[in-house]
Design a protein that fits this description.
heterodimer; A: 483 residues; alpha/beta; D-Maltodextrin-Binding Protein, domain 2; MetI-like fold; 3 domains; 6-stranded mixed sheet; 12% strand; B: 245 residues; Rossmann fold; 9 helices; 38% helix; globular; binds adenosine-5'-diphosphate; binds magnesium ion; ATP-binding (chain B); ABC-type amino acid transporter activity (chain B); ATP binding (chain B); nucleotide-binding (chain B)
Chain lengths: 483, 245
């Protein structure tokens, strides 16, 4: 009983430690000078995209930064993806979003919009050699759309009438690829975006006039951050009056800008691409490694504690352990990440930085798996070992430490190695909450240069190399432990 | 002579399975009691309740004057004084032979490492295995393992030792060595309860033989009384079976 209580105490300490880590950071940020966190899409050129130096640029970004400068406030632009930004805004994780967001009545339920800063319309694009000319050619065919976009909504609104099916993508490039490779026959996109994409390399052509004229607006959560909204509106008026606005738009949609972008990307060898992007990829790898190492440490501590609670002679502790394992092993990692990043802050009214949310996610998920095999490993040790130790007068804890755990640990070693590798791979899922790790970095680079095959090959190779190193390291440790 | 163990109306059930149905037994200091009985009659369960590896369902166990039902009693201290030797040895697989013997005196602060080592070597010599101090338990034969297990138990300087079929898992040629060690212990005055089917051992060493069946003690007496002149029908049947194989 006493042992169980000590176990319970240490688990509580562990959880508090993780919580402390989670909340120490945002508090610091709040105490410092006010910086507005602005969400944007990963890639929505010409509104937001990473340039050659992997810096975020585009009409949205430049407008936001110019207004901030003029009005005297600071912004931290977070390219977390359109859908993630919508959720993060609703959860209060970010203060505003500028992501080519069309002002709609539906969105006004949840967001307050600025005055419109851009007028657009939906166009349909098809493969260069396609014979499709109008909506009526789409009958029985498949059309690619991007989730949560006004263009996508428009396509859906005419889907019945013209009798086509739709397939949805999270990312513009994947959508374009689906059409240029012939998987889908057409896609729907906002006019400036489509124009820009074609001029910079998408093998598509626009075949319709702009429909459904829409207006882009900067958004804050409904009823929140009203002073930011006011500053944006004031700033927008000013840059329209003083010519800065015109300059920004011309920079991205003017003919000269296109030409230079286009020339850049015609033929990149593997080596060229590596040299251009190695800094960004190494930066992403660095994040991946930090995430992996921290997650492995926390997940191991958490997992061992929960696993031990599963075997101590205390029904309450056993039940707790079983429940934790059941819940966190049962939840898909993606759902858990979104729940912690966008769900929990809703409840707490406190921001959780993506990085911390990511560590918590992996700690809970990988920790649950770890707990399961720790429990299994201990249970695999013959009962007679514990009985012999107890009959010699050893207390439960001593018997556990000196006799059972050393044997259980030996059984668990391969599982630990396996779990470390899985943790490394699972960090890639955290790209969903916008952490700039290796996978997300790859996505952003491809969003810019459309070199999907070569960049994903690089990313895959980096993962394989790191996993190989990790495996060697683990095997080496395993051998050292045996001898 | 004083009572080392006194058991009153001991009962043990697993769910609806009543294994021990009310046992009374007193074991005196220096006494060697051999317990026989058919498989499944509850012999192991009985031994295991004496050091609370199993929690009794009802009844009273008094060890050295300490009532085990007393909430204040520290079972770990009681167990230090009751050695137990298992059918399957249960040597600690993660430790060497020497470490097996040294573990509890060192962990429980009875001896420092140096003294424990000297002591362990002495005990291993006593069971004829002085050269196995650094061996891995896995490299030993069954008979050697059981002798190490006995040495490990002796390291705690117990007042009594419970043996649960210590030779049943051994090849026949190994049995003699283990029994010889046990006879030595008996001669030195160790209080012992031995569950065994080695009738020769019982005849030679036991002060008393107890026949157990169906969760009761059916009959008890001197080896001579039980083996030459059993009174209970069940005892007769059992002995016929075991002795006429
Ligand atoms: N841990 C346990 N759980 C449930 N039943 C048990 C357990 N241990 C023993 N039993 C039952 O108790 C009875 C007596 O077993 P045991 O004491 O091992 O007999 P013996 O040692 O005389 O062969 C058997 O019916 C056995 O199935
Ligand atoms: Mg038995």
């Amino acid at each position: 009983m006493k042992r169980a209580r000590i176990g319970l105490l240490s688990i509580i300490c562990g959880v508090i430690f993780i919580m402390g880590l989670a909340f120490s950071k945002p508090v610091n940020v709040n105490a410092a000078e006010k910086v507005y966190e602005i969400g944007t899409d990963v890639t929505y050129p010409p509104f937001e995209f990473a340039n050659d130096q992997n810096k975020y640029v585009g009409i949205d970004i430049d407008i936001m930064k110019t207004i901030a400068k003029n009005e005297g406030f600071k912004v931290d632009i977070k390219p977390i993806g359109f859908n993630a930004a919508v959720q993060a805004l609703d959860a209060g994780q970010i203060d505003g979003m500028i992501a080519g967001t069309t002002i709609t009545n539906e969105r006004k339920q949840k967001m307050d919009f600025s005055d419109s800063y851009f007028k657009t319309g939906v166009v349909m694009a098809v493969a260069k050699n396609s014979s499709i000319k109008s909506y009526s050619d789409l009958k029985g065919k498949r059309v690619a759309i991007k989730t949560g976009t006004a263009a996508g909504d428009y396509a859906k609104s005419i889907q019945k009438k013209y009798g086509f099916t739709t397939v949805t993508f999270d990312d513009s490039n994947n959508m374009y690829d689906d059409v240029s490779t012939g998987n889908s026959v057409a896609c729907f996109e906002d006019q400036p975006v489509m124009q820009y994409a074609i001029k910079t390399g998408a093998k598509l052509k626009i075949v319709t006039k702009p429909a459904e004229g829409g207006y882009y607006g900067f958004a804050v959560k409904r009823g929140k951050n009203q002073e930011l909204l006011k500053k944006f509106n004031a700033g927008l008026k000013e840059i329209k009056a003083n010519g800065q606005y015109e300059k920004i738009v011309t920079k991205y949609l003017g003919a000269s800008a296109m030409a230079s972008e286009k020339k850049d990307k015609s033929q990149n060898t593997f080596v060229d691409l590596w040299n251009q992007n190695k800094d960004a990829l190494m930066g992403g790898l660095g994040q991946t490694i930090i995430l992996t190492v921290l997650s492995i440490i926390f997940a191991t501590i958490f997992g061992v504690l929960i696993g031990l609670l599963g075997v101590v002679p205390n029904k309450l502790a056993n039940g707790f352990s079983t429940t934790v394992i059941y819940v966190f092993r049962g939840l898909p990692l993606l759902v858990l990440a979104l729940f912690i990043y966008t769900g929990v802050p809703n409840l707490l009214g406190e921001k959780i930085p993506a990085f911390i949310a990511g560590i918590i996610t992996l700690t809970l998920n990988e920790g649950a798996y770890t707990a399961a095999f720790v429990k299994g490993g201990i249970e695999a040790v013959d009962d007679g070992q514990m009985e012999a130790a107890r009959s010699l007068g050893l207390p439960y804890g001593k018997a556990m430490r000196r006799v059972i755990l050393p044997q259980g640990l030996k059984i668990m070693v391969p599982s630990f190695i396996n779990q470390f590798i899985i943790t490394l791979k699972d960090t890639s899922i955290l790209s969903i909450i916008g952490i700039l790790e290796l996978t997300q970095t790859g996505k952003i680079i491809i969003a810019r240069n459309l070199e999907g095959f070569k960049i994903w090959t690089m990313v895959a190779l980096i993962y394989l190399i790191i996993i190989t190193l990790l495996t060697w390291l683990s095997k080496w440790v395993e051998r050292r432990m045996k001898s | 002579m004083s009572a080392k163990i006194q058991v009153n109306q001991l009962q043990k059930s697993y769910g609806t399975n009543e294994v021990l149905k009310g046992l009374d037994l007193t074991v005196q200091e220096n006494e060697v009691v051999v317990m026989i009985g058919p498989s499944g009659s509850g012999k192991s369960t009985f031994l295991r309740t004496l050091n609370k590896l199993e929690e009794p369902t009802a009844g009273q166990i008094i060890v050295d004057g300490h009532d085990l039902n007393d909430a204040k009693i520290n079972m770990n201290h009681v167990r230090e004084k009751i050695g137990m030797v298992f059918q399957h040895f249960n040597l600690f697989n993660n430790l060497t032979v020497g470490e097996n013997v040294m573990l509890s005196p060192v962990e429980l602060g009875k001896l420092n490492k140096q003294d424990a080592k000297v002591e362990a070597k002495d005990l291993l010599k006593r069971v004829g295995l002085e050269d196995k101090f650094d061996a891995n338990p896995k490299s030993l034969s069954g008979g050697q393992k059981q002798r190490v297990a006995i040495a490990r138990t002796l390291a705690m300087k117990p007042d009594m030792i419970l043996f649960d079929e210590p030779t049943s898992a051994l090849d026949p040629e190994m049995v003699g060595d283990v029994l010889a060690v046990m006879k030595d212990l008996a001669k030195d005055g160790m209080t012992m309860i031995v569950v065994t089917h080695e009738m020769g051992f019982a005849k030679e060493v036991a002060d008393r033989v107890i026949f157990m069946a169906d969760g009761y003690i059916m009959e008890e007496g001197t080896p001579n009384e039980i083996f030459s002149n059993p009174q209970n029908k069940r005892t007769k049947e059992f002995l016929n079976k075991v002795l006429n194989v």
